[in-house]
């Protein structure tokens, strides 16, 4: 019989999602204030926290060339975020936990929509092919990265809470990890593919990776991501097939916690990736342009990467089934 998540696991997941929704509301309020301050001259961030100031910014009409103003676009984003929060905050209650699958299932595309709204250009007529590809891949990079790190944080909290300390905890943990692995593998593929594009667009020369402040912070971020991928591969290929052993399960939990901490480190580095490595290096050369050959090469890299990740997932599943069969026979 296929194991299912315990009620306690659902409660923990519901609380995390509910509190995460409240944190999202606070974060979004502060971000709207920051946008308001940037849109108004001589307006400080503290002054922009005033709801009246925000309201004036959110209702400002668009100019002649734009189909919607930046403020109105932000207002749409805020409305979608409020809808997502309305779906997730009830998960803090027993009523919401009982409906966690439906509420979280509906909230997921709503949250994705909120992210996409923010990246929508107010004046699409000025959007070139390169800018369009850049926006799509940058948004995919953000969504995939947050899905990966967010999932790891949830797994780390569940592991720490000991909600899986039951007789069949190995089976339950293996099931949870296998389900998350699908999300993680897709996220890793999107992060790596989009990351290659963004690096290619941002940097004029490979030496700018170590000769500029932007590049050095990016190298540190890449190191953390590489460690996350390595830890995930160790979990997937070595520990997961051996979860029937108590020591392997304990190590799996520990490695998940380390992955989550590395993910937090990646997010902490992002605010330092400001400016342009080209300008920091004094590079006045022309920017890279996405030709048909470059796009074809990118698709080929994405296909090869996707195939390798799929092969990894299948190999891990085979190893897990083989280990389970061996344990049953023993």
TrEMBL record:
Task: Give compartment(s).
Answer: Cell membrane
- Per the database record, which ranges form the Copper resistance protein D domain? 176-272
Membrane-topology descriptor: Multi-pass membrane protein
A family per Pfam: CopD
Protein keywords: Cell membrane, Membrane, Transmembrane, Transmembrane helix
Which InterPro entries does the annotation name?
CopC/D (IPR032694), Cu-R_CopD_dom (IPR008457)
Q: What is this protein called?
A: Putative copper resistance protein D/copper transport protein
